[in-house]
Amino acid sequence: MINSDNVKKIDVVRYFLQGRHQQPQRESGLAFSPTNIALCKYWGKRDIELNLPATSSLSVSLPDKGAMTELRLHNENRDYIILNGTPVDSESVFAKRTSQFLDLFRQDTQWYLHINIKMNIPVAAGLASSACGFASLVSALNDFFDWQLATRDLSILARLGSGSATRSFWSGFVEWHAGSRHDGMDSYAEPLNVEWPSLCVGILPISNAEKPISSRDAMMRTTNSSILYANWPKKVLQDMAIFKQAMKVKNFALLGGTAESNALTMHATMLSSWPPICYFLPETIEMMHQVWRLRHEGLQLYFTEDAGPNLKLLFQDEDTSSVKEHFPTVEVIRVFD
Known about the structure:
The chain is α+β, with helices and mostly antiparallel strands. It folds into 2 domains: about 10-190, Ribosomal Protein S5, domain 2, CATH 3.30.230; about 200-335, GHMP kinase, C-terminal domain (Alpha-Beta Plaits). It has helices at about 10-15, 95-105, 130-145, 150-160, 215-225, 230-250, 250-270, 280-295, 320-325, and strands at about 30-40, 45, 50-55, 55-75, 80-85, 85, 115-120, 175, 190, 200-205, 300-305, 310-315, 330-335. A hairpin with a 5-residue loop joins strand 11 and strand 12 (about 310-315). The protein starts with 8 loop residues before the first helix and ends with a strand.
């Protein structure tokens, strides 16, 4: 427990790194973290500084989709970032956010990093790129410095960079506990001991363009101005219980329907914000209506949508051919392969 009434990110980092190496212990650090798709969304914070969520959330990780990060020392007085083979402008939001996060770990020692990130998902398009990015960065630091931190501790550290990153350390279903402590030490993620071999996620690309407003800014505007947001915690509490029941009895319609309802409720809070926030594109709406039409015709198909225009389809393996027929551009991922 951190003995302070006003806990900062640096306090959390110092707590975990006390007595641990302050300099790299090997030539490089390397780590992969999967992206995660929230079924029960994280939307709203009880503590902005520590990225402590207003509610718990639940996600499913996508195997082989995410970020691979390699770290080496850089002999200049700044970090140097390469993303998918292209150098990142040091003045960009991406570079500044990454370096500011690394500043938390530099503490009394000065070192800078050559950071090589390879992502096989679009960046800033509502596919949790920041989640897997910060999770892989923290894991690579743990490898590079040989901190030997437990995965739960890495989950807490990654949360300081991106809330959803706390869920990107495991495969399968993952729950992020909201916690109640002011220092956030009880707000971490852990995997659920549930497997669903037939579960598939279909990534339906609509736009890879960077979204007009970041998730962080959209979340703040929603919590500050949406009249509907007051009911969001109640919705999450209800949905979390339904999700766990659906997983227990393997009721796919219950799982898919609850995920779709949860996503649409989150977007309703955004639409009722001021100024309104709308991530839907015309193609997003068109695809939603197609899912609803197909479900009416008997296909067990659902969708979820994060803070971006792209839909993620939820269906079972037996319906893969039908889904591909109606959505030729979909990328099918078997979650538990």
